[in-house]
Amino acid sequence: MKRVAVAPAAKRIAFVLLAPAALAEIGSGSTAVAKLLDPGVDLFLILAYGFPLVAIDNARTRWRLSNHAVFVLGLAYGILNEGLLAQTLVRFDDLPIREFDRYLLVGGLNLSWAALIVPWHALFSVMFPLALADAWFPVDDAEPLISQRAFAGLGVVLAAIIALLGVVRAPHAAMAFCALAIGVFTLFAFALRVGEAPAAVTESRRAGQFAFGLIGYPSIVIPTVALAHAKADSVLYFAWIAAAGAALFGFGRALGVRTPLRAPRLAEGAYASLGLSHLVFGGLVKNSFIESLAGLVFAAFFVATAFAPAAMRRI
Q1: Is the separation of the CB atoms in 122 and 130 below 8 Å?
Q2: Handedness of CA 85, 90, 94, 95 (dihedral sign)
Q3: Cβ atoms of 127 and 260 closer than 8 Å
Q4: Is the separation of the CB atoms in 13 and 270 below 8 Å?
Q5: Per-position pLDDT tens, the chain of length 315
Q6: How many CB atoms lie within 10 A of CB 173?
Q7: Residue 292 lies in a domain
Q8: Residue 1 falls inside a structural domain
Q9: Residue 150 belongs to some domain of the structure
Q10: Smallest Cα–Cα separation from 257: which of 144, 168, 87, 127?
Q11: 105 phi and psi angles, rounded to 5 deg
Q12: 169 occurs within a structural domain
C-alpha cells in the first residue's frame, strides 16, 4: 500500500492542537491517566489547550510577534486556563497544591498561586509546546498555517468565550477582572510585534540546556511551595518570585538561550523534570502504579528525544 504523505503544516497543526493538553495535564499529573479514557474529558482538554495555542501560534506569524510578546500571550492563556476555566485563581481552599490554600488573598484572587501557575502555563502550555513544534515540525515562518478567515473566526470565538465566561461565571467581579486582564495582555502582546522573522532554533550546548531545564524546574517550584507552606511574608514571597525569574533569564542567556521558543532542548529537560515530579508526587505519594508509570514514561520519552540525532527528532 502506498503511504500517503501528510503536509508539514497539517502535522504541525495537529501537534499544536493535540499535544499541549497531554504535555501539561499528563506530565504534571493534574488529570489522572484513567480519566483520559473519557472522550468528554479529552474533548474538553483539546478545546481548553489546543485551540488557544493554535491561535497563538498563528498570531505569532501573522503579527510578527516578538518572543516577549508570545510570553505575554502565554500569561493571558494562564489566566484563561486557571481563572475563567478551572477557577483556581479565585479558590481559597483545596488548590491543586494545598500549600497555597488561604495564602496571600487579595480582592477575591489567590495571588500566591497566581504568581506560580500563570507563568507556569506561559512556559509549559505555550512556549515549550511551540518550541517543540518548531523543532519537530518545522515550517516556513513567513507563511501562516491557517487562512486569514479561519484565524479571524478562531479569534472571534475565543474572544466571545472569554467575554461570556467573564460575565456569567461567579464570582462575577473576579471573573470580569480575569477577562479584562486577558484582553489587556493580548493588546500588549500585539504592541510588542517586531516585523521580522524569528531567529533559528538553537542547537548549541544541547546537554547544558537540557540540564538547565531538568534542574531549573524543581529549583523554582520547591522553594516557592516551601514559602507558601510557611506562609511567608508577602514581600519575601514576591521578592523570591522576581529573583527566581531573573536568575532563570540570566542562566538561560549564559547557555545561549535567548528565548525558550528557540531552545527545544530546554523544553525537553523541563518536561522530563515535570514527568519525574509526577512519578514522585503523582505516583508514589498517591500510591498509584499507573500514575508512577505515566510519570516515568513521560520523563523517559523526553530524555530520549533530547539526545536523539537531529534527523530522528523531526517527525
Answers
A1: no
A2: positive
A3: yes
A4: no
A5: 344 445 778 889 999 999 999 999 888 888 888 888 888 998 999 999 999 999 999 999 888 888 889 999 999 999 999 999 999 999 999 999 999 999 999 989 999 999 999 999 999 999 999 999 998 888 766 677 888 999 999 999 999 999 999 999 999 999 999 999 999 999 999 998 875 555 555 555 678 889 999 999 999 999 999 999 999 999 999 999 999 999 888 888 777 777 788 889 999 999 999 999 988 876 667 777 888 888 999 999 999 998 876 545 555
A6: 12
A7: yes
A8: no
A9: yes
A10: 127
A11: -95, 125
A12: yes
Cβ atoms 154, 55 nearer than 8 A: yes
Q: Which residue reads 510585534 in cell numbers?
A: 193
**By residue range, what is the domain housing residue 229?**
8-313
User: Measured between alpha carbons, how far is residue 159 from residues 111, 180, 195, 233, 249 in Å?
Assistant: 24, 11, 24, 37, 31
* Residue 135 cell numbers, joined: 523543532
User: Into how many domains does the chain fold?
Assistant: 1
